[in-house]
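Progress report, Aim 2. The chain analyzed during this reporting quarter is listed below.
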Amino acid sequence: MKISEVAERTGLSISTIRFYEKFRLCPFIERGPDGNRVFSKTDADWLALLASLRATGMPMEEMRAFAELYASGDKTIPERKAALLAHRQSLGDRQAELDQCRAILKQKLQRYDEIIKDQACG
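Predicted structure tokens for the chain:
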């Protein structure tokens, strides 16, 4: 697959894919005889995972550490699982914060609706 095809498939921009490669998040991408990147389905799936990790707030250094574990092979699966479990926990914590913020906003919006209704009647 060409980089443009992977970009379309993953939703990542070409520049982001190149950045991830330069940041050593995907050092295993092959190059063709012409020097262009040649992506496999596994590469595309890996990039989609990276996009998800980034979108959920995983810091780049943690992503790099995770990528290094991945590149080291199946012997690192327990460490990779632990990293993803820790990230999932942080997402749960963040979701709880967001739910609390949403509840506060809901109360404030209801109060504004009451004020607007009172002003319209008065």
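The chain is about 75% helix and 5% strand. The CA atoms of residues 74 and 80 lie 9 Å apart. These observations will guide the mutagenesis work planned for the next reporting period.
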